[in-house]
Each structure stands twice: as structure tokens, then as C-alpha cells.
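STRUCTURE:
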């Protein structure tokens, strides 16, 4: 089966050839942010609905907004506009500006780390494993959230999306993050919550582990039981 992405990447996989993520103890761990370490959807949902209300459009429910998360804020706004009547480029710019302004003022109003995340990060930190973040959220927003939630101290690298730069599932941002942490891709582990994170890891030949209670929108049939976890108190990251 061939899976295509908007960024132009193509990946071939078959059920008989699953992507293997088994590895020894990782020498570095990189995390996605939204839906992996933090439950940020309530603040994103509020910002999207404020944006839609400003345009005289109907609001979207939380589940729908969650299904739009993963490819960056521009795609989130784009999909929300498409779901409520479509758009032309000038309207998208206006809507995106409103969203970004509202969200920047409410970036951690409702956002919180998932239960067990702080303890897990402390465990990895105490084990001497360098940690990083690779997200499609803008870098400035990712850094601000980590600062306000007192998570920044755990990470040597916080890498987000920047205008004109490649985004996940292109593996470049993840591979750059791994390089900055001083290890090779096969020695690192990427932890994410979505198919976008999975294919980012696979495109870069980086071992992957899925947090299954985040914002996953499609079944991940290639993964075995050891490749995912559903709570941060039993992540099993250091047990492989």
C-alpha cells in the first residue's frame, strides 16, 4: 500500500513488512508536543472558535478541531475554514492573524501536561538521556508553553515549525534535532501521538513509540504492543 502526503513524500509499506521500532536503551529521546506531552486542544479549540465567531461562522466541536491538529497552525486554520464555508486567500490571512493573536494571549489558559509527563521527563533526565522536542507548532509558541508549564528545564533542544522550512512528516526537522543532541538517528527515539509523527520517524529511520491517548486520527496497524503506550506512568521507554 502506498501512502501519500501533501508535502510530496511517498512511503511504501505492507502488512507483512511492519516498521520495526524495537531498540536498546535510547541515547536521546525527542518528543512531539501537542497531544504527546501536553493536552493543548482546549486552547486551540477556543482560538479557532473565537476566529470563526469573528467571521460570523458557526463554531466547531472539540473533536472536529482535534482531527485538524498535526500539520501546523496554518493547516488548522485552513481546515477549520473549509469546514465552515471555505475561503479565499485574503480571508485566510485575516483568519490566521486573528487566530494567532487570540491564541498567543491564551496559550496556556487550558493547556496542561498529561498526567505522569513531569515524572517521566524527570526519570529520563535523571538517567542522563538528552531530551528534545520536535513539533509542527511554531518554535516561539512551543518555547513559551514549555516555559509557562515549567517543562523547559528538561530539554536541550526545542525545535518548532518556521516559515519557509520543512515540516513533519518530512524527517528533516527531526534529524536536525537529533544531530543537535549529539547522537545518530538509530540511537534516538521519537515519541509522538499521531500518524504524522510515525511517518516522520519512519522517513528518517528513527525508532518510534506512540502515545495512543493523544490526537491520533487513524489506526496504526503497523505498530505492535511494545511500540505504544496509553499512559505516562507506564511508558516502557527504558524497558526495551
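SEQUENCE:
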Amino acid at each position: 500500500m502506498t501512502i501519500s502526503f501533501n508535502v510530496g513524500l511517498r512511503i511504501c509499506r505492507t502488512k507483512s513488512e511492519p516498521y520495526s521500532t524495537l531498540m536498546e536503551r535510547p541515547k536521546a529521546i525527542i518528543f512531539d508536543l501537542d497531544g504527546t506531552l501536553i493536552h493543548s486542544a482546549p486552547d486551540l479549540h477556543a482560538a479557532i472558535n473565537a476566529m470563526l465567531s469573528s467571521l460570523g461562522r458557526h463554531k466547531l466541536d472539540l473533536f472536529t478541531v482535534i482531527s485538524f491538529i498535526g500539520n501546523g497552525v496554518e493547516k488548522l486554520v485552513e481546515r477549520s475554514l473549509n469546514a465552515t464555508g471555505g475561503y479565499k486567500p485574503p480571508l485566510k490571512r485575516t483568519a490566521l492573524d486573528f487566530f494567532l493573536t487570540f491564541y498567543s494571549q491564551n496559550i496556556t489558559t487550558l493547556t496542561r501536561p498529561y498526567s505522569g509527563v513531569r515524572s517521566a521527563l524527570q526519570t529520563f533526565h535523571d538517567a542522563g538521556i538528552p531530551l528534545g522536542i520536535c513539533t509542527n507548532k511554531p518554535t516561539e509558541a512551543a518555547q513559551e508553553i514549555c516555559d509557562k508549564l515549567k517543562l523547559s528545564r528538561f530539554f536541550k533542544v526545542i525545535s518548532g515549525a518556521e516559515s519557509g522550512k520543512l515540516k513533519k512528516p518530512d524527517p528533516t526537522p527531526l534529524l536536525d534535532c537529533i544531530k543537535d543532541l549529539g547522537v545518530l538517528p538509530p540511537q534516538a527515539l521519537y515519541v509522538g501521538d499521531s500518524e504524522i509523527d510515525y511517518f516522520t520517524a519512519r522517513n528518517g529511520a528513527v525508532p518510534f513509540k506512540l502515545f495512543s491517548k493523544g490526537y491520533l486520527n487513524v489506526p496504526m496497524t503497523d505498530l505492535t504492543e511494545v511500540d505504544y503506550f496509553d499512559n505516562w506512568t507506564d511508558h516502557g521507554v527504558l524497558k526495551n
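REMARK: DSSP finds eight helices and ten strands in the chain.
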